[in-house]
Amino acid sequence: MKEYSTKDIRNVVLIGSSKSGKTTLSEAMLYEGKVVDRRGTVEGKNTVSDNTEFEQTNQKSVYATPLYAEFMNTKFNIIDAPGSDDFCGGAISAFKVCESAILTVNGAQGVEVGTEIFARYADQYNKPMIVAVNQLDTEKANWEHTRDTLKEAFGKKVVFAQFPVNPGPGFDGIVDVITMKYYHFTDENGKFEESDIPAQYADEAEELHMELVEKAAEGDDALMEKYFETMELSIDEVRAGLRAGLAKREVMPVFCISARKDIGVKRLMEFVINVAASPAGETNKTVGGEEVACDPSAPVSIFIYKTSVEQHLGDVSYFKVMSGVLKEGADLVNPENGNGERLSAIYAVAGDKKEKVSSISAGDIGCVMKLKGGKSDVTLAAPGQEAFEHMVFPDARYRCAVKAVDKNDEAKVGEALNKIAAQDPTINVEYSKELRQTILSGQGEQAINLVKWRMNNEFKQNIEFLAPKVPYRETITKVATA
Ligand SMILES: Nc1nc2c(ncn2[C@@H]2O[C@H](COP(=O)(O)OP(=O)(O)O)[C@@H](O)[C@H]2O)c(=O)[nH]1
Ligand SMILES: [Mg+2]
């Protein structure tokens, strides 16, 4: 793989409700980026993203998987996040390293509770959102309902970049009101013909184009002036206006896709590359409040946002290069404890496919194996730099007591639970002296059940859950003599 410069990188996280097609979309993006030459399906248990036994058995994502596509001379990094709030830690850690989010919406359901939950996280973590209305090829696809629920949920931010032609099983076309072109899809592998907008869609296209241009103009004062004078903007001006609006999180452009049939995916990626931010302009705050520019010519620093234990590989640390250029063999230090670490081999990652590279530029995402102190939320940097601000996760919402089924396994069980907690920042394990119980807590029952599954299947340990004891406390309220 060639080394991509900072301006030629995009980092996007896929968020949205469960079953809105994030994993299927990531697969189509990998296909468009020629990382795979056949697309797997969630049902076929052969997507690049859902590559763990638990995910394949349950046909749903529980880990946020880093992936990439090489597309339009851009390294297009994708993090496919789980759609259940129980596993929100995946999306939240991805926000730390991605400039934008793609919010997938099931075009048969419209905006769902899960859509709103993840949109709220994106708000909280300040990430611009691009909306992809998916599943427009399904029997129950309902564009009008989806469009209305989007407006209801997100108000004036919503602006339609496209509308679908023949939504439903015959879905085969998209009218794009940025390019003012009609895309007609001729197979289920992303092939399309581009033409002028057919007469019967011209009025709707014109109306949405006007709304879009006005929205773009609002992004920037100079564009607004030009728009008032001429009532029109060039396509590059529209892009510039949308770029500014996205950065301020005042605009949520809406695209139409079928991830399964690879309809509209290429155009969505093109938009991200043309309009969404690259890491080049960004700065990241350190624990001391300093802003570090994502500048390839600065001293190197990386931030580990995720770790996992993977088959045949052991401990894997996933990071973003926050500044400088990371070279294989680099000797870095953890500014918070002074410990040194050599990164002898570094990789680009698409799920369990890892490609060794010799350097990774500021803004890009990669991984490294078997570090001594490669825990998530850790900065490694050339000497003399500060650690980056730590990630913040929601407090636990579900807790239970846990114990080894066989008392003799207690030590091993404790060790395995700590390993799991180290990988998932929303899982906590602590021994309560007061209750004399080990308390496991997380974001919900599903998250706790995954811990049990992993204990049984990956660590071969039997555990049982118990209700936490109620602490027995009494307050002395009045004086008595006896
Ligand atoms: N017909 C159709 N099915 C889709 C599409 N996208 C996803 N699916 C199916 O919808 C279900 C959920 O998809 P998945 O990618 O796992 O959604 P996620 O939970 O958001 O990652 C799976 O059965 C997919 O095969 C699509 O564009 N069209
Ligand atoms: Mg998924």
Walkthrough of the structure:
It is a single chain. The protein has 482 residues and is of the alpha+beta class. 26% of the residues lie in helices and 29% in strands. The chain is built from eleven helices and 27 strands. It has helices spanning 22-32, 53-58, 88-95, 113-124, 143-154, 202-218, 221-230, 235-247, 265-275, 410-423, 445-457; strands at 9-16, 65-71, 74-80, 100-106, 129-134, 158-160, 162-165, 173-176, 181-185, 192-195, 252-256, 283-285, 291-293, 301-310, 314-323, 325-327, 330-333, 340-343, 346-350, 353-357, 359-361, 365-369, 378-381, 398-404, 428-432, 437-442, 463-466. Helix 6 packs across helix 7 and helix 6 (202-218) packs across helix 8 (235-247). The protein is globular and about 90 Å long. The relative contact order is 0.12. The model has no long low-confidence stretch (mean pLDDT 95). Bound molecules: guanosine-5'-diphosphate and magnesium ion. The site of guanosine-5'-diphosphate (GDP) has 22 residues, from helix 1.
Short characterization:
By secondary structure, this protein is of the alpha+beta class. It is 26% helix and 29% strand. The termini are far apart.
